[in-house]
Fold each of these.
Amino acid sequence: MADLETFAQCLTSIANLGANDIYNWYLASTEPSTTAARPSPPNLKINLIYPCTPKHIAKYSSQGVRTVTETPDIYRSHILPYIERNRADGRLNWVFNILDGLTEQEDVVYRSPPSNNTDDDFLLLPDLNWDRSTLTSLHLLCLPNRRDLHSLRDLRPSHLPWLRHLRASVLAATAKLYPALDFDQLKLYLHYQPTYYHLHVHVVHVALEAGATQAVGKAWGLETIMEMLEVMGEVEEATGKSGAGMEGLTMTYGVGEASELWTEVFEPLKREGQKGV
C-alpha cells in the first residue's frame, strides 16, 4: 500500500482517456511540470480497474504458464459451460454498453453505417494498451454488433460470407481512418481463449509484436480461420455431411496457473489423467 501511495504522489499531468463500468484509462507523467500551461508530456499509460475482482488480480499477477490441449469433447463438456458462466450475470454489459451507444462513445473511432442486416454492423475503438498516436503500434478492437458468436469456436462454414464482409469493411474503415497505412500493413486476428466472450477482432500494425497476446495458440489469424472454414465447407459439400466447424478442432494453447481455466478445468483433468490434457 505504501508503494502505491508513493507512486500516486509521483504522478503529474494526469489525463483521463476514457471509462466504462469498472475500467478507467489514463495518461500521466512522472516528470514535474515546468509550468501550468506546459505540462510534462506523458510517459505512462495507466489502466485502473476499480473495484477489481479476484479474477482480475489473478489475471495480472505473476504466474506460471501451462500448455493445454482442448479436444472437441473437452470443449463441449467443460469449456462451453465455463463460457456460459462467464457470459452470465451481466459480465458483458460493458461491451453491450459500447455497442448500444451508452458508454465510451467518445472513444469509438468508427461505427459502420446502419444496414438492413444489423449482424453486419460493427464499430472500431482503440485497444486500452495503444497510445492512440504511434501507427507502428496501432491496435484497434472491432466489436461486431451480432451477439450470437461468443468465440472462434462458434464459427462455421456458413459464417464465411459474413466474415468476408467484415474483413473487407474493417480494412477499408481502418485505411480511411489512417491514410498512411496500406492494407498489407495490417493484420487481423482473434484470441483463443479470449479475455471476454463476445466475438471480437484485433486489428494491429504488422510491426506490432505484443508478446504473449500474439503467442502461438493464442492469436488466430482471421484469414487462416476463413481458409479453414472454406476447406470445411468443401468437405461438407463433398460428403453431404454437416461438420462442426471450429468446434470440431483440437486446439493447443497456454493458460496461466492462476486462471480459472487451469484451476477449474485443466488441472482437475490432468489429475484425472484424461487424454489430451
Amino acid sequence: MVFEIGVTCTEPSFHPLEFANALTVTAPGVTDPDISSNHRTAGATIAVIDESDVKIDGTVLDCASRSYVRDHFTCTVTATVSNGGDYGPAVADVLLGLTGPTDCALSPTGATRHEDQQVALGTPTVVATIWDVTCRDRSYHDFAATARVVLDHLHVIDPDATNNDGAATDRVEVFELVDLSIAGIRITCSERQYQTQDITCVSTVTVANAGPATAVQTRTVVEFTAPAGCTVTPTGTQQDTRTLDAGTSATFTKTWTLSCSQARRHTFATRATIAADEPHPEDVNDDGLADLICHFDTKKTGLTCNSTTATLIGRTVDGLRFEGQDDVKVTGC
C-alpha cells in the first residue's frame, strides 16, 4: 500500500522526517499471535530550498578630487545591497574592489570581502571599504570600483544572477609642485641718438626650473613696450615653448623692430612671464618670477607634518623688522 503525506516547511534547511507505520487486525474473530512485528519506522532527510534575489542596487566611488604626487589620499567604495525575496534575511558576502593607474599604490591590495551580511527584505544593507592611495606621476588618474554580492546560505538560491554586480568610476587630479622662474632678462637695442627709424631691439630671457617636477612643458610670454611715437613689430607679445627638466635653465632671444617718429632718446622696456603649459605642474607661487628660496632645519622650526602655516620674522640688512606668514606643506611625512 502507498500512502501520500503532504509536508510543508517554513525554513530552508535539512529537514529530517520520521514515518511510523502500525498494523492492527480489525477483522472479527481474528487475532494476531505476534504483534511485535506490527510496527516499523522509516526516516528520510529532505533539503528544503528557498529563493532570495539579492542584488546590488547602487555602487558609489568617492575619491579626493585632487592630490599631489606621493601624497596619501583616500578612495571609498560604497555598495547598497537589497533582497527582492522570497526568503529573508539571507546571508550574503559582498566583495568590493578598486583599480587605478599603474603608478598608483592601493592599500588594501585586491578586493575586500564583507562576510555574513544579513540582507533583510525591504531594508537595504550598505557596506563600504576605504582605500589609501598614493600616485607617483602627475596627471589625470581614473579609478574604477566594482561591487558583487554572493549568497552564502546553504539552502537559499539566487534566481537572478544578472543583478549581482555594480560598478562606478571617479577621477583624481594629481599635481606636482614646480618652481618656474625668469632667472634673467635683459634688452639690447641698436638705437643711437641720431637714428629714429629701423631700430632693432633684442630681449634675452633665461628661464629656469628649480623642481621638484621635471620634464615640465613651459610657455614664456615676452612683452615689449615703447613710448608714444614708436611703432613696434611684431605687435603684442612673443612666446617661447620648451620642456624644462628639474635643475635646468634655458636662454632664448626675441627680436623687435621699431620705427620712431621723433629724434630723441627713447626708453624701452621688456618683461617675461613663465608658466607651466600642461595641466598638472603647480607653481609654488604661480608668479613665473625668480623666487627667494630659504632652507631651514625642520626640527628647529617646530613645524610638524600637520602644520599648515608658518611665520617668518626677521630684519633686513638695514635693520628694518619684517614679518610674513604663508601656507606651508611639510614634505617627507
Amino acid sequence: MRNTVMSSGPTLPAPVRPDPAVPTPSAIGRGVLRRLAHLYWRFARPMTLGVRAVILHPDKGVFLVKHSYVAGWHLPGGGVEAGETIVASMVREVEEEANIVVTGEPVLHGVFFNVHASRRDHVVVYVVTTFKERGPRLPDREIVEASFFPLDGLPADTTRGTRERLDEIAGRRPPSPTW
C-alpha cells in the first residue's frame, strides 16, 4: 500500500463577480450574433407587408386609384414602412394616394397572402367609412387617375384582387386567404 500525500496545490484567487452593468464578452458576442442573424434573415427570407383601404361612400361608391407604374384600378394603399404601424401606414397612404383623411376607426377586413406578387408578400385590407375628402386627387407621377365608382359600375380594368375584396365586403363571395 502506498502512502499518498495530499497537497492542496497553489491557492487560487476567489472568483471575481462581474459588474452587471458591464456587458461580458459573451453577452457582447451574443448581441452581435443576434444582430447578424437578423440581418441574414432579413435578406435571406424577406417578407413584405402592404396595406390597402376600401374607402366606401354611401352615395359615391368605392374610391379607386390608377398608378403610373402598374396596369388597372386598385384600392389605395402601399407598403408598411419600418417603425410604422399597419393602421398608420394605411392612413398615410390614403392621404397620399386619395387626398382623403381617415377620421373614424377603420375596420379590418382581412390579411391576404399575395402569392401573385411573391412567396412572401402579405396585404392587410381595412374598410374605411368615416373620412373627409380634402379635394379632388390631382394626377402626379405616381397616381394618374383617382375617383369614386359605384360598386356595380367598376371600370373594366379594375384588378382581380380589388374586385374579389369588394365582392367579399359586399357579401357576394366568401373571404379568401389569398390576394
Amino acid sequence: MNPTRRRVLAAVGGAAATLATAACSGTLPKVRLAAGTGRARGTVRFWYRAGTQQSVAAMIAAFHRAQDRIRVQATPVVDGQYVTKLATTIRSGHVPDLVDMDDINSTLFVYRDAFADLTEAVAALPYRRRLSPGHLRLGTRDGRHYAVPFFADNSALACNTELFRRAGLDLDASTRDFAGLLHAARAISRLGDDVHGWYLPGNGAGALAFTVLPQVWASGGRLIRGAVGSQHADVAHNEGLRATLTLLSTMWRERLMPRTCFSDDGSRWTGEFLAGRIGMLPCSYGNIVVDADPAFLRTVRYVLLPGQHGGHSFFDGGDNFAIPNGAQNPDAAWEFVRFCLDVARQQTLPQSNYLPVRADALTDRYRRRYPLTVPPLADISAGYAPPCLAYNLIFNQANAPWLTMLRRAVFGGDVAGAMAEGQRGYDTLLRQAQL
C-alpha cells in the first residue's frame, strides 16, 4: 500500500517547521505578475512534493505538448523535508519559480511574507468562484491571495453497501447524524465476529485529524478560533468535540471497531475495509482506490462525514501552488498554474488518485466516470482546514495534544479529562507559535 498522505504529513517536524519559517521575511524582491499576456517563455524551476509525482508528471507532460515557449524543470522534494527545505532556500535567496506544497502548510509561508501576492491574477480567473474555498483560505491573508489550489485530497466516509444491505440498513438514513452512525455500526457489527461497523487508525495523529475533525466541524465545533497570529483554543467546553469523542468512545467500548484500531498508526488504515470486513471507514478517495479490487470498488459508496445532528463536512486536504518572492520567471510559472487549473486538466486528476479543485469539473460525464469523487465536489463549500501557524505541532506529531486527547477519550473513556488536557496543550502550542 502506498504511504497515506496523512502519515506523510505526520512526518513533518512541527517544531522544526515553525522555527525554520520564522526566519523567512520580506527581504526577497517582491514579484509582480504580468499574467495573461501569453508572451512568457523560458524555464520554470518548479518544486513539488515527491508524493505527488504521478499527478505532477502528467501535468508537465501535457503542458509541454500544448506549447513550446516554456519548459518546466521539476524537482521533487521529500514530503517530510519540504517545509524546512523551502524555508532554507528562501533564506538563502535562491528560490524556485513555483512551488507545490501541502495546502495546510501554505499558511506558515504566507504569514512570513515568503510568497508573491496573486490577488489580481486570481481575480482575473473566470472560474474564480468555482475554486475550492478551503484551499484558498489557507493561502489568504487580509483578503489577499498568496496561493491557489492545485488538487484536492479530501476526507469522506467510505461505506460498504453490501454490509449495509445485509444488515437491513438504508445507507442515506444511517449516515445523516451520529445516532444513525451508531445504529448502523451496531447492526453491521452483529453480522459476524470478524465484521465491524467502524474503523479508525487510532495511533495516527495526522490520519485522525483528517478524518475526525470534519465530524467536529459538522457538529458546529471549531477547536482553533480567531485570526492567525492571535488564535486561541476552544477545546475544553466544545460541544461538537464532546459529541464526536463520545460517539467514538462508545463505538470502542461496544467493540464496534476492531481491536487493531488501538495501535494502527495509519499503516493498516484500509486493509480491513478492503477485505470487506468494515462497514464505514473515514478516509480519502486515494486511500481506497490505490489497492482496491475493481469489483469491490463497485460495492463502495462515499458520503460526506455527518455531524451530531446533521450537516456534513470534509477535510480540505491537497496541494496549493505558490510563487515565492524572488522568483526569476513568475509569469511563465503562472501560465503553467493556469494550465493545471484548466477544467479539462482538473478532470484527469482522479487518474492519479486526487480530486479537482474546481466545482465546475463536476459534469455529467465526470460523475459517470468517477462516482466516488463526487460528494466533496458537489458541496465544495463544506470543506474546511484550519489556517494556523501551529497546525503541525498540534495535530500531526506523535506527541501532539490532539492525539493524546483523542486516545484518552476514545480508548480510555475519559472524555471530559481528555478535553481539559487538550485545552492546555493547544493553548501552550498556540502561544509558542504566535510569539
